[in-house]
Backbone:
């Protein structure tokens, strides 16, 4: 019998029975990731720290059967010839699996938990991920329709940060969201959610992020939000940013602000649009206004490390011009091994200040206080190659 005729609830319960050894972790709100290295070694992440569990699947075949069931749940097929699965579990959690022989000791599986409870800005402030001043600055930058990239490494909290920042989008605006796999829970009412789709086993029905992007431009968006930039769609987003679609937001993988721009450049070059590199770099630098850099620190905590303004590109030196508005400073460890740090204004007053004022917004007083104290104001920007 095809799974199309099985009631969804029955199918979900069957899948969860196959996943019984890890069911307690799927039900535990403290677990953010589940990592399975073959049937007998299962790790979980709690509060940014990895813990080896006593859970195990009875045999490798039992784990493979669970993964085949998970693949069937999302309308895919996984075997030795197609050993990689990207999909979602019934609760929305993201699953990535690689079968032998591609994973000789496997299967190797990672499950990123999906939390129905959305992290708000206030919760991120309470967790110490940002301060009320940084939250106020980000609110002004988002409301004023600056283009913001949320960048960070794997598991750094990019999606959670983008979800939180979406609460600052004014209610009257229409937001079109493009995702590879649905993860964002934007805290807005007027939202059009679009999701890419892989081809079926016969190669039919594929809908790429780039396909969705072309459709988006005709859906009358006030803002475009891209869950994660991964490839050539980067240039589509950049061209939307520079053609009057202000207030775009997206996430991408990069560790420092300077890496964020070079990574965006690399992905833009994957596009089939022919453009001289010099022209592309100038367009990138004018498209991206703000980088909100997030990181998972050594103690497992997730924090904003930089709020950086992108000011342009210097063709002579071949470098992007940027200046940090806020930067995190580190002060060692406390007695429990937690990293002591705070995020403070650098004293730089961003050039986008005029656009903030046009939208009736302003930066928090600490930014101006730091500028007076440091005697900075709008200083010459740094060059990042």
Residues:
């Amino acid at each position: 019998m095809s799974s199309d005729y099985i009631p969804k609830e029955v199918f979900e319960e069957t899948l969860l029975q196959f996943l019984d050894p890890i069911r307690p972790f799927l039900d535990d709100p403290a677990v953010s990731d589940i990592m399975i290295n073959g049937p007998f070694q299962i790790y979980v992440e709690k509060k940014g720290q990895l813990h080896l569990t006593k859970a195990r699947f009875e045999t490798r075949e039992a784990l493979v059967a669970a993964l085949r069931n998970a693949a069937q749940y999302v309308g895919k097929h996984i075997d030795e010839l197609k050993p990689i699965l990207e999909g979602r579990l019934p609760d929305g959690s993201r699953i990535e699996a690689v079968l032998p022989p591609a994973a000789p000791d496997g299967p190797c599986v990672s499950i990123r938990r999906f939390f129905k409870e959305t992290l708000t800005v206030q919760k991120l402030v309470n967790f110490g991920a940002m301060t009320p001043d940084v939250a106020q600055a980000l609110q002004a930058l988002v409301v004023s329709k600056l283009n913001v990239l949320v960048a960070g490494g794997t598991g750094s909290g990019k999606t959670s940060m983008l979800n939180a920042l979406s609460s600052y989008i004014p209610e009257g605006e229409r937001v079109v969201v493009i995702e590879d796999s649905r993860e964002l829970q934007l805290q807005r009412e007027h939202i059009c959610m679009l999701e890419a789709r892989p081809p079926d086993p016969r190669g039919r029905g594929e809908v790429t992020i780039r396909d969705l992007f072309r459709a988006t431009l005709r859906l009358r968006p006030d803002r475009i939000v891209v869950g994660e930039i991964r490839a050539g769609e980067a240039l589509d987003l950049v061209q939307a940013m520079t053609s009057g679609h202000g207030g775009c937001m997206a996430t991408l993988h990069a560790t420092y602000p300077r890496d964020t721009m070079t990574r965006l450049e690399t992905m833009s070059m994957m596009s089939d649009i022919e453009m001289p590199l010099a022209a592309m770099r100038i367009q990138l630098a004018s498209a991206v206004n703000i980088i909100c850099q997030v990181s998972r620190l050594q103690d497992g905590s997730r924090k904003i490390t930089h709020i950086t303004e992108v000011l342009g590109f210097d063709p002579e030196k071949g470098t992007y011009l940027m200046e940090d508005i806020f930067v995190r400073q580190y002060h060692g460890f406390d007695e429990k091994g937690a990293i002591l740090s705070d995020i403070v204004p650098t004293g730089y007053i961003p050039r986008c200040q005029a656009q903030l004022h046009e939208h009736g917004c302003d930066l928090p007083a600490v930014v101006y206080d730091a500028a007076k104290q440091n005697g900075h104001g709008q200083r010459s920007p740094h060059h990042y190659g």
